Amino acid sequence: MTIGGLPESPPEADPKKITDFIAGMTDRYALNIYEKIFLPKPWAVL
User: Fold this and answer.
1) Do residues 8 and 2 lie in contact, with contact meaning Cβ atoms separated by under 8 Å?
2) Residue 6 backbone dihedrals phi, psi, to 5 degrees
């Protein structure tokens, strides 16, 4: 089903679930997740 021409979001993208997940994070955990998602990994030296 579409809403306004856009496809409906999957159930796992429920905004309440996302905000609860973020609210339950500690600062250290949030920074670790941020690093894994957004910061590039260094190249290995052989």
Assistant:
1) yes
2) -100, 145
Question: The whole model's pTM is what?
Answer: 0.45
CB count, 10 Å around CB of 21? Answer: 10
Place of tokens 């994070």: 25
In this predicted structure, the answer to whether residue 9 has a pLDDT above a threshold of 70 is no
CB 33 within 8 A of CB 25: yes
Q: Where does 1-46 have alpha helices with state H?
A: 15-23, 27-38
How far apart are the C-alpha atoms of 31 and 37, rounded to whole Å? 10
